[in-house]
Write a structure and sequence with these properties.
The chain is of the alpha+beta class. It folds into 4 domains: 3-84, no CATH class; 101-211, no CATH class; 273-451 and 498-554, no CATH class; 559-758, no CATH class. Helix content is 35%, strand content 9%. The chain is built from 27 helices and 19 strands. Helix 5 (101-108) crosses helix 7 (136-147) and helix 24 (703-721) runs antiparallel to helix 26 (739-746). The radius of gyration is 30 Å and the shape is globular.
Length: 759
């Protein structure tokens, strides 16, 4: 009887009609739990890998949690042999003769959970038979791993030299143990074990052992003002040749022995090339990296970036790159965060993360495949100077495009030349300006409309508004275009929609603008015509990539932040939240200046004060309290959303502290319920906007539907312009007009927004 026949129960989970679990499956899961509980790692941590279809042996859980996951989701496909739970596949004699370190590893291997940890971290999986020898680099890794797998003393079956080192470093990191304490503890362990033990004697030797098998980080000193990196030709410099700032801190006082030079600022770069190579050295990911080419795609359905026009256009323009399905397409994301507590001195740190798009939807954009590449130091936002810090990464991306790197694909036992291309960047709107070089501030903030934007400055509000900037996106002769009353008074719209510039056209415009690397003082000056004819602050470093001009989308508008900001404006305005509502006194004064809406203009009372009449789009105090009471009693399903009831202030009848995902749920699910108390001519456009975002954020999109959204969103925005004051429409309320185009060209928004990176 084959192993599949013995374990048929693994994929016979549900009774007919999905009315419950089969008896065989329940008994089989109990058997599996008993087998997994015999692992030495379970005796240490009381946890083992969860083989359900969600976790796929990547997460360590307690037995009861594993059992519950298997009942809910079943086993991952084709997991007949429990290789991650102590069983081994039968080996083929592919080679005769002398055994290599790789083969010896297979012959002598016992269940070692911390070697498994190294496989996960470094991407190596040595549990498959290699029919052809790997390249020298991979073979060297096999030999190092084999040499580090000696038991810590003769007869020990629970730990090897490697496992004890990894375990101790994990404990040090988790509990922030000082070096001296670590050395004392590990010294005590050496004393209490047999005399011939090979436990590393201190932190230095422990790190040295693990570093041979893992991935290293490169430390690059940088100017404290962000003017330059001490990198390549400038590696030996001791002062910044731009601002003359010193590279190193001065040693204070007299020292018995000279200390090492300590730089004022340092960039950490985790080289991306080894990480991409190891995607093909792991059996858990190597075959999935060809999924985008081998999948069966439906012509009109977009469920992955590989289904969209940007990917297909790149293949047509670069056929030699597309001919090798193992070549990798990447996305880059960056955002600032404060690594310290809120009470500490403000410090803005900027990590840069790369993620590969070759993987199938269930693996793409997940944490194991998000590679932290750069850690840009603070304490301030790098702004336009971010290109200075991106230089090491761009150099590797050029190498991956122009030359490629020799890589071993363990799934088909071949060495091949790996190349990679950056498809686009992902970031919030300020980060969009930092990465693209087009400033996202001012009246020309929109990177699509550019100088064709019709944004203007409010006379009383003092801010830029995109009010009445959407009629030009309507089809010709639409009734809104001739309306002189509902929008800016006495204005008829005759302009066509702004053209979308190609990469070559943008590059031509940038021909006379230098990069920040060529002219570091660029961040402190503006080019002639800035804010009127253009909004360029620099030529982005990404234009040095040979293929960048051929990308249809180079920088993505972040749907997460656009949706959150739009919802905040809507909710604060209809709830009339003091200090946050866009319907304030200055907004009413601007209504009189630009619109014909007598019912919303300020009224002078008998004592000479200005009174703001109640707007039809805002709730009464009783309605606001009713809505807050409803939110207070609202309970979300587990895993669907956070506890919004904690964000309710019944006294002031408002919500506070909403997270981005809370706004996502309110916009797409709860907003239609909330606005149902408003008049139909107000509630209907808001419900249409809610449906627009809900459809746009679907995991599968239709090209025909997206073209329909492109036609509908300008109409929805025009309807909102007829309701809300001009001060309501900032850049975030304008950007949705471009989102359907980006979804049609780039694919579903789940692969191009900030949620997975911010989490």
């Amino acid at each position: 009887m084959t192993i599949q026949e013995e374990r048929y129960w693994m994929y016979n989970r549900l009774l007919l009609g999905r009315k419950g679990l089969t008896v065989e499956f329940i008994q089989g899961v109990e058997t599996f739990i008993q087998v997994a509980s015999q692992l030495p790692s379970f005796q240490l941590d009381k946890m083992f890998r969860c083989p359900c279809s969600k976790h796929k042996n990547l997460a360590f859980l307690k037995p009861d949690d594993v059992k519950l996951d298997l009942y809910r989701r079943g086993f991952l496909p084709n997991y007949w042999i429990w290789t991650s739970h102590g069983e081994y596949e039968p080996h083929r004699d592919a080679h005769a003769g002398s055994s290599t370190a790789y083969e010896t590893f297979h012959e002598n291997q016992m269940s070692r959970p911390y070697e498994d940890l190294i496989f996960d971290v470094t991407g190596h999986n040595l549990r498959s038979n290699v029919e052809e020898p790997p390249n020298a680099e991979t073979q060297k890794f096999f030999e190092l791993l084999h040499s580090a797998q000696k038991p810590i003393w003769e007869g020990c079956s629970t730990h090897s030299e490697l496992s004890i080192a990894v375990r101790m470093l994990s404990i040090k990191t988790e509990y922030n143990i000082p070096r001296e304490c670590f050395n004392d503890v590990i010294g005590l362990m050496k004393e209490t074990n047999p005399a011939d033990n090979i436990i590393p004697s201190d932190l230095y030797r422990t790190k040295k052992l693990v570093s041979k098998l893992g991935l290293t980080a490169t430390k690059i000193d940088c100017c404290i003002n962000g003017c330059m990196l001490y990198y390549k030709d400038d590696a030996a410099e001791v002062t910044c040749h731009i601002c003359n700032a010193p590279r190193f801190k001065q040693n204070s006082g007299k020292q018995r022995r000279p200390k090492k030079d300590v730089p004022y600022s340092r960039l950490f770069y985790l080289p991306i090339i080894p990480r991409l190579q190891r995607l093909y050295a792991s059996m858990s990911s190597a075959d999935h990296m060809r999924w985008h080419k081998e999948k069966i795609a439906k012509s009109d359905i977009l469920s992955h970036p590989s289904d969209a026009e940007a990917w297909k256009h790149f293949d047509r323009v670069h056929p030699s790159f597309a001919a090798e399905p193992r070549n990798i397409r990447l996305g880059l994301c960056t955002d600032g965060f404060t690594p310290y507590s809120q009470t500490a001195t403000p410090y803005s740190c900027w990590p840069v993360i790369l993620t590969p798009y070759n993987l199938p939807p269930e693996m793409c954009m997940t944490t194991p495949f998000m590679f932290l590449t750069l850690i840009i130091p603070g304490p301030h936002n790098p702004k336009a100077k971010i290109d200075i810090y991106l230089q090491p990464l761009i150099d590797d991306l050029k190498l991956l495009w122009e030359e490629g790197v020799l890589t071993y694909d363990i799934s088909i036992k071949q060495n091949f030349l790996l190349r990679a291309a950056l498809l686009w960047t992902i970031g919030d709107f300020p980060a969009y300006g930092m990465l693209s070089g087009w400033s996202t501030a001012g009246k020309l903030a929109c990177p699509y409309c550019m100088e064709n934007s019709k944004a203007f400055t409010l006379k009383h509000g003092g801010k830029n508004t995109w009010f009445d900037c959407h009629r030009m996106f309507l089809h010709a002769n639409h009734q809104f275009q001739r309306n002189k009353e509902a929008f800016v008074k006495n204005r008829i719209e005759r302009s066509p929609p702004p053209p979308r510039l190609s990469g070559d056209e943008i590059l031509q415009r940038l021909s006379n603008i230098p990069t920040i690397i060529e002219y570091p003082m660029l961040s402190e000056s503006k080019f002639p015509g800035y804010g009127v004819q253009h909004n360029w602050i620099k030529k982005s470093i990404f234009w040095t990539l040979p293929y960048w001009r051929t990308n249809l989308i180079r920088h993505n508008l972040d749907v997460m932040h656009i949706e959150k900001n739009f919802l905040d404006n809507i909710f604060n305005t209809i709830m009339d939240v003091k200090g946050k509502s866009k319907d304030n006194v200055k907004a009413r004064m601007d209504i009189k200046e630009f619109c014909r809406r007598k019912n919303l203009e300020l009224v002078t009372t008998t004592d000479g004060k200005l009174m703001k009449p109640k707007a039809p789009y805002s709730f009464t105090l009783e309605q606001k309290r009713m809505i807050c009471q409803w939110f207070k009693g609202l309970k979300m399903p587990d895993g669907y959303g956070s506890n919004i009831s904690r964000c309710v202030d019944l006294k002031s009848a408002r919500l506070f502290g909403l997270k981005s995902h809370d706004c996502h749920i309110i916009m797409e699910v709860l907003l239609p319920i909330i606005v149902s108390m408003l008049p139909d001519y107000i509630s209907n456009p808001l419900i249409e906007l809610s449906i627009f975002f809900k459809d746009l954020c679907s995991s599968k999109l239709s090209e025909n539907a997206l073209r329909r959204y492109e036609d509908n969103i300008p109409i929805i925005l025009c309807k909102l312009e007829k309701i809300f004051p001009p001060g309501f429409f900032y850049s975030m309320e304008h950007l949705p007009v471009h989102l359907p185009y980006e979804a049609r060209v780039g694919g579903p928004v789940q692969y191009r927004w900030m949620y997975p990176f911010e989490r």
